[in-house]
Amino acid sequence: MYTAPLGKRPRWWTELPLIAVVYGLYSAGRLLVRGDVQSAVDHGVAILDLEKTFRIDIEPSLNRLFTDHSAIGIPADFAYAALHYLLTPALLVWLFRRRPDHYRRMRTWLMISTLIGLIGFTLLPTCPPRLLDPSFGFVDTMRQYSEYGWWGGDASAPRGLGGLTNQYAAMPSLHVGWALWCGVVLWAQGRKTWTKVAGVAYPLAITLVVMGTANHYLLDAVAGAAVMGAGFLLTRPALRLAERIRARLAPAAPSVPAETAVATANVSAGCETSAGTAGTAPSRVRPGAPERLREADASDQIPRQPARDGAGESRTDGAATAAR
Fold this sequence. Notes:
Elements: H1 12-32, H2 37-53, H3 59-68, H4 70-98, H5 100-123, H6 141-144, H7 174-189, H8 193-212, H9 218-249, H10 258-270, H11 291-300, H12 309-323
């Protein structure tokens, strides 16, 4: 598991521009690489036919459930229009503040996966189910319930801003991809039981939402999960490459001349920092002991003269005489 190097805690003034650049590329790519509409429709129909072949086309049933029951469809529209842009940045900020050792790895994983998704939008423009011919039986729930929210009939874009989005960027589904990333963060970094539950429930719920609102096919969701898997595998090499580039761009430490280093080594080898001079026996006093203790130890080494018995006896006799 990659962790940020010691002393290399990310700084917000470098992280915000980096995230803004990547998200700007993602948004600009969706806008500029619109592709041919007929090709996008053909790709959508081909995906639906492939699902019918393997009998995994669950989108029509989910879409009918969402359109027939407003209690399901309206909250699903809010979830599709908001959580993608609210929960993901909120978890990024939380990682930055509370889990800085894991933030850089998780941020890099999200960015790489987003750029891979942009490549998918470019190479395979795909018409979502809601924009297919009505004969396919899909209903745009966001258009149906548009009076309840800020969106119109152009996906999750606010009313009047539908022209600023690429509605044929259905493959892969980054709604599902980002939700999977959020689920991993909640599961791996959360310490409460409810965060573990939310880590599993959230990506599953978003997968149902994107199909029930007729914004994505099941294979779009599978492709979104695959993109996140590819981004996860590329995260460690990308971080290593970034460390090499940072090391090369960092200023080199000033070098010490060889003569100075040798002289310093010779001086330190022949000197002592404790009391005494070079060549003398080492003192038994611990290095760093107070000087008074050292002087006391030195005086203790001077042999003391024993008291003479005669002197002691004469002092005793004199005291006795005075007492008489």
